[in-house]
């Protein structure tokens, strides 16, 4: 087996040889593939082919710790813009095997696409000159990022700290909320995901809780707002509303006698789905009623995602965040909003809270801010930051406010604002959702299409004409076929996920690329038995 260590020679730029051994402008090497005319990045591992690279599952079981995933069969040797490239076949004239269109931006992170030339340039220059410092030292990238980030956020999000991962930023945010309030109970939403650190995983309810030992005390849960599979007791007729005696607080619509479970989201044949709508407010207030009964009187914060991505791409209903903040204020709690995936333009706003005009007490960012590099942020108000400092808030880590990732984050924000990518994401999102809804109209196995901007979820069911039975195996077959055809859409079969494709391409994607991806997805549905074409 050849060495997996890359041998890196001076890289030519745009087909030209480097001068004095250095690229002209820090851009990645672009070689022209004569087979398709596209510019391709250099393969740093040219000696590895499909015949001599290791069996990945065997290699992983021998040398890697399993962290809760199943590895895909292809060895990815390069990535550029929307494309991932696999190792080539022996004797191939191309430096790559397959090109796979990445509709999940890596781990929902490569906001501007893989190997964006300006990001590459920033990484290269800072790796050579200003990469890492003692945590008590400040550098221009950190100052620049703090100023630029707070300038594009709503007033009241005034000061920031820069960390590495989303879990780490949520850990810091929760600790900050506890420090500020002097209380310890934290409320999360059902089907939520906030990371694998101790406090973050204690207030998420998607996966990872059954560890066999106590989690951090004080974790409480509100129902997951799921308009597609809401409990039958939290539905109301669109025309007349529900009848009955109100038992919830002001503004609630939950009534005695409405809590009738009809089972797994299925609708009776007699019921007309169009006559009903989701009563999220009644469900939320019912959840708060249970929390108030369970609480020991130490409610510190709520943490919430604007779109529950890992839970199935569920968008919080209009008005939900505003009502949630009102309920927090009633109880002296802080509202923490986790925008790991929704932040920095993906939903058609700089941050998704702008859709509702809500300013959280603490905002966390990660994934998209670093364009795939480990960079996260916690942003809060002057008042909260000052009180936490007075109370000796401590979150001193090795890589806090590191200059290299901060420089990348600053460049990401510069590009997003300069190129008006927020508006672009909104326009491309309209095209994406229109195309996905056309697929829904054609295939009865698509139960729901949801999302916002360039975040979309496509939920697969057995047959939506008969009900909402999850089509987990069917979804896997469609996903496998799409991958064979060269399109990667993340799919999980976890019960709280429900067989939903998560689609989140880089926000630099163009209209032609959106439509090409939709065409591949159409071909995948068309070629798999059981998708139930309607015409």
Give a brief outline of the structure.
The chain is of the alpha/beta class and 535 residues long.
Question: Can you characterise this structure?
Answer:
The N and C termini lie far apart (51 Å). Helix content is 30%, strand content 16%. Strand 1 (30-32) and strand 2 (39-41) form a beta hairpin. The protein has helices at residues 56-63, 105-108, 117-129, 140-152, 166-181, 198-202, 280-294, 320-330, 382-390, 403-418, 421-442, 472-484, 511-526, and strands spanning 30-32, 39-41, 76-80, 83-86, 99-102, 159-163, 185-189, 219-222, 235-237, 276-278, 299-304, 307-308, 314-315, 334-338, 362-365, 376-380, 446-452, 455-460, 487-488, 490-492, 500-503. It is an alpha/beta fold and 535 residues long. The strands form 6 sheets. Strands 6-16-15-14-11-7-8 form a 7-stranded mixed sheet, sandwiched between helices. Strands 3-4-5-19 form a 4-stranded mixed sheet. Among the domains are: 117-207 and 215-225 and 276-417, Aspartate Aminotransferase, domain 2 (3-Layer(aba) Sandwich), CATH 3.40.640.10; 419-525, Aspartate Aminotransferase, domain 1, CATH 3.90.1150. Mean pLDDT is 87; it is low at 1-37 and 241-270. The chain is globular, with a radius of gyration of 24 Å. The relative contact order is 0.13. The chain is built from 13 helices and 21 strands. The longest helix is centred in the C-terminal third of the chain and has 22 residues, at 421-442.
